[in-house]
Fold this protein.
Amino acid sequence: MPNAPKTPARQVRIGDEWLDLGDVASSNNTDRAAIVRDLIAWYLREPGSKLPTRPTREVVLEFRRLRDEAAAAAADQ
């Protein structure tokens, strides 16, 4: 199969923080899945696991502001 993932997809309900996580992860040259995997490994105390680097609060708030501005601009059109 051309696009057969190595692991099955899982479903988790997450609020708007999912959007924040995607924006901030991208700005740090990673993705949400990598962050979630790192958190799970750390939580399970897997050998060698580390917590992912956290952004500053200002970075998160800036991405929220930009997303809110884009939504407002789209609503005005």
